[in-house]
Every structure is written in C-alpha cells, then in structure tokens.
Amino acid sequence: MSETAAIGTGSSDLQMQFMKLLVAQLQNQNPLEPMDNSDMTAQLAQISSLEQLEKVNGYLSALQGQASGFGAALGAASLIGRQVSYARADGTVAGGLVTGVVQQDGTFALAVGDQVVGLGAVLEIGD
Asked: Residue 89, class by beta-carbon neighbours within 10 Å (0-12 exposed, 13-18 middle, 19+ buried)?
C-alpha cells in the first residue's frame, strides 16, 4: 500500500520542500560534474520570488475586501436625503426618507425613519 503525503502551500511548507529538494540534489549529484552555483542561485531566487508573490496575493485579497466594503458604504451614503421604497419582511411595501447609514452584521443598511433597511430590500429610489 502506498502512502501519500499532503503537499502544503504555505510559505514555510514551500521552504521546507525546497530545502529537501536541494539536499537531495546535492546528495545525488555527479561528483565529476557538480551542480553549477548559478543553478543553485536561480533556484533560491525562484523560491524567494514565490514567497513574495504569496505575500502580495494575501495583501491584495485583504485590500479587495476593504474596497468592497468601502464601495457599499459609499453607495449607501449616496442615498441619504432621498426617498426610498422597500420590501418589509412580511412582504408589504413601505417607504420613507433615508436619514443615515448603519453598519449591521458587517454590512451596510439604511436608516429610514425608525427602521433599518438592508440595501437588498430597496425597491425604488426617488428624489
């Protein structure tokens, strides 16, 4: 029965895999034709570049999440002072003047009179 190990993709996992590969290459190289220093340097540069790209990808993902929330906040804020009609939970339609924006459960909602209305419930926007 063969044993299969899970391959990690984290930065430390990549470093460990690279070091194991490098040690195996050094142990199995032909003594008459040793590994070229430029090859080893290129491999080290590649693993370093991969680590940096992984970090940049994480930063960009976090930035994308923040930009999405910022866009929703701006969209909701642009409705302040405007009349909206919205669907209530019971299926009826109500309306009123948007007086503010509130953050509720990590999303933005409108304050319409004494009601908090989710942006998805807005049916119509007036002047």
From this structure: exposed
- Per domain, the residue ranges of the chain are 11-71, 78-125
For residue 115, what are the CA distances in angstroms to 97, 104, 109, 118, 123?
10, 12, 10, 10, 15
The whole-model pTM stands at 0.48
* CB-based burial label for 34 (10 Å; 0-12, 13-18, 19+): exposed
CATH of 78-125 given 1.10.260.40, 3.40.640.10, 2.30.30.30, 2.60.320.10: 2.30.30.30
Tens digits of per-residue pLDDT, 99-126? 999 987 778 889 998 899 988 889 999 8
**Contacts (Cβ under 8 Å, ≥6 apart) of 15:** 47, 51
Contacts 24+ apart (CB under 8 A), 26-30: none
- Per-residue pLDDT of 55-89, as tens digits, reads 888 888 887 777 777 777 788 888 999 999 999 98
